[in-house]
Structure to design on (164 residues):
């Protein structure tokens, strides 16, 4: 007698399991926790990176970062300077009369007029901590027409004693 049979044994297919609401909620909760933990861990490293970059920027007369640019075909420098707890924009060579600098950042948006006493646009009315770094959008306008625009870092004043 043989142990094999000619009759097939039918195996029913396993049911396809779909993830339910509970599994998706668990995945979402894990993703949120990982994002929060990642942000908490990354923040000090990002701050250290910003401090390192701020320590190596070219500085001007008001301890602000200097940027080389071209305004209406003229090679110019723009300094985001710190006259106290405010931000001023120094443009060299000086723009023609009637120009207005619009500045926008975490502190809000302002229109800065030319200050002949400081040879700069501004300073801002908003009080800003000069030790912090922030990205600002600058727009130079003359007669309501935009003649130059850029997004630049207003690097805070580097603390004394920075060393490598």
């Amino acid at each position: 007698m043989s142990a094999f049979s000619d009759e097939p044994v039918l195996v029913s297919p396993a049911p396809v399991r779909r993830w339910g609401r509970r599994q998706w909620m668990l995945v979402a909760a894990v993703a949120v926790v990982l994002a929060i933990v990642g942000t908490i861990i990354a923040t000090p490293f990002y701050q250290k990176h910003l401090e390192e970059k701020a320590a190596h920027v070219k500085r001007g007369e008001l301890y602000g970062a200097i940027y080389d640019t071209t305004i209406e075909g003229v090679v110019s420098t723009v300094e985001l300077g710190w006259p106290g707890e405010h931000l001023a924009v120094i443009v060299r060579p000086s723009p023609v009369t009637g120009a207005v600098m619009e500045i926008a950042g975490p502190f809000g948006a302002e229109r800065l007029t030319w200050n002949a006493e400081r040879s700069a646009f501004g300073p801002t009315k908003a009080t800003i901590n000069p030790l912090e770094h922030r990205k600002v959008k600058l727009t130079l306008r003359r007669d309501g027409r935009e003649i130059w625009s850029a997004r630049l870092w207003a690097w805070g004043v580097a603390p004394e004693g920075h060393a490598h």
User: Anything to note?
Assistant: Residues 92 and 148 are 14 Å apart (CA to CA). The mean pLDDT is 88.
